[in-house]
Amino acid sequence: MTSDSRYRIPIVGHGEGASACYTGLVMERWRLVVGFEGGYEVSDLGRVRRVGAGRGSRVDRVLRTRANNSGYQVVGLWMRNRPFHRLLHRLVAVAFLGTVPPGHEVNHINLTKSDCRAANLEYVTRGENLRHRAAVGIGRGEQNGASKLTENQVRAIRTAHQQGVGYKRLAREHGVSPRGVRAIVKRSTWGWLAPSDQDGEGGVAPPPALHLEPRLAP
Questions:
Q1: 147 DSSP assignment
Q2: At a CB cut-off of 8 Å and minimum separation 6, what does 50 contact?
Q3: Strand 40-43 vs strand 48-50: parallel, antiparallel, or unpaired?
Q4: Using CA atoms, how far apart are residues 123 and 108, in angstroms rounded to an integer?
Q5: Quick one: which H or E segment has residue 155?
Q6: Quick check: 205 pLDDT over 60?
Q7: Alpha-carbon dihedral of residues 144, 150, 153, 154, nearest 10 degrees?
């Protein structure tokens, strides 16, 4: 079952926290929410409305959504007097893209989690999703919550190593392991981080003369 209506659509910019502006009226398509047929419909613009009668609820009322701790929009639905919380982008994807293929997940094409329009969603594998995020710098480097180093520290490590400072000393100075320092120097990690335009790596001034320790064997 589908139906159409007109709605003033928000145009969302690229990336999280992007501001929205509004354009003219566009056609909005509605389809039944899979698993909640007869109770709710979801639109290709990322809105959910009630279509079945319920205690204290108005038919055709558009439901409010909220962001969860990960920044994804969540909507509350009811069935048999029980509440259910569902991710909005998954409801839209299943309704307009079909069932999620095995081994796939929903990806926001413009990386804006609040933009749950069907046109902004696609099914990709986990690897494809991670590569998409990495291509624009999301989830890597300082944006990774598990990272112990900043970009400037990584560049400083590479600069100091080029000048003869060993892995062990650099590890102590930056609070990481010698193995981690070696991975940075060899670009096994942080390989995407390019040198700055000044002072070789990162614009870091040469360190004062140090008593150098032997490097770890490669």
A1: -
A2: 39, 40, 57, 58, 59, 60, 61, 63
A3: antiparallel
A4: 9
A5: helix 151-162
A6: no
A7: 30
pLDDT digits 0-9 by tens, 18-27: 333 334 567 8
- CATH number of 22's domain: 3.90.75.20
Range of the domain at 125: 2-138
Could you give the 3-state DSSP secondary structure of residue 204? coil
pTM over 0.85: no
Paired tokens of 69: 């701790």
Task: Determine which helix (DSSP H) or strand (DSSP E) holds 30, and give its type and residue range.
Answer: strand 20-32
Q: What is the pLDDT of residues 36-65, one digit of tens each?
A: 988 899 999 999 999 877 666 678 889 999
Distances 190 to 49, 102, 139, 197 between C-alpha atoms, Å: 45, 32, 12, 17
Indicate whether 168 and 128 sit together in one domain.
no
Q: What is the residue-wise DSSP string for 104-135?
A: EEEEETTS-TT---GGGEEEEEHHHHHHHHHH
**Strands lying side by side in the sheet with 65-67:** 65-67, 73-79, 82-87
